[in-house]
Amino acid sequence: MNNNEAINTLNEIKDLMQKSSRFQTISGLSIIIIGIYASIVSLGAWMLLGNHETYSWLPTWSVDFALNTPGRTWTAILCALALVVVSFGTVCVMSYAKTKRQNHHFSFDQTVRRPLFHFFVPAVTGGLLCLAMLLQGHYGLTSSFMLVFYGLALINCSHYTTSTIALLGYVELILGIIDCFLVNHAILLWFLGFGLWHIVFGIFFTLKNRRTACGNNAVNQTGSSDNKQ
User: Fold this and answer.
1) Residues 64-102: pLDDT tens digits?
2) Are 179 and 147 within 8 A, CB to CB?
3) What is the rounded CA–CA span in Å between residue 86 and residue 90?
4) What are phi and psi of 23, to 5 degrees?
5) CB 106 within 8 A of CB 27
6) pLDDT at 98
7) Quick check: 17 and 192 in contact, CB under 8 A?
8) Is the dihedral of CA 92, 171, 21, 219 positive or negative?
């Protein structure tokens, strides 16, 4: 019994050390909101880039917008940059709010810097590569590279934050590879990866965290009652 208690204590210490070295305050709701943002941008991209001659109900600018023009290219670039900035800001604000709700002190320490660094290295690399491709008129695989590098960024940073985030990254990576072979369905796969899958994963992530929190509360209550006895 003493050996088992010692092993259990060591495992608990190990779990606490791992949790203390990881950024654990990602908000599941922020993931859902990012998916909604991306779904709206996907719809805009479909209206901007698609062939809608048979859809008279669409706005004039989306129907008559010329293909492969500098104006269309810069519109797509600015929309993508706006999505990145707004999404990142949403995650930061909601993570900070979650930290405050849990009565924890938020500081920009190594626990925060490490996952950000490992996320932004592949994300920025992929972003610059996509920007170069767009400016040189190579549009075919741009959405594929976005999905692939975003998936790699999520997988890379999952080692320093909630490990479940890797699941989001693997699906993005798979969709990016599929997109490489289905160029004519790029906007659809972009929507599935950045939009729909974010919403589905965000719901799963939120429910999983709630179950974990309920389980921890039950364990704590049981431990308290045992101590009283």
Assistant:
1) 444 456 677 777 778 888 888 999 899 888 888 877 777
2) yes
3) 6
4) -85, 110
5) no
6) 79
7) no
8) positive
> What pLDDT does 7 receive?
60
Among candidate residues 42, 65, 52, the one with its CA nearest the CA of residue 179:
42
pLDDT at 36: 94
The model's pTM is 0.75
Q: What is the pLDDT of residue 160?
A: 85
Please spell the DSSP secondary structure of 210-229, one letter per residue: HHHHHHHHHHHHHHHHHHH-
Low-confidence ranges of the chain (pLDDT < 50): 16-19, 54-67, 219
Structure tokens at 190: 């972009």
- Percent helix / strand / coil, the chain, rounded to 5: 80, 0, 20
Give, in order, the Cα–Cα distances in Å from 90 to each of 69, 122, 140, 184: 32, 20, 30, 31
List Cβ<8 Å contacts ≥24 apart for 89-93.
90/30, 90/33, 90/34, 90/37, 91/26, 91/27, 91/30, 91/34, 93/30
Please report, for residues 89, 157, 208, 219, the alpha-carbon distance to residue 216 in angstroms, rounded to integers and kept in the order given. 30, 25, 12, 5
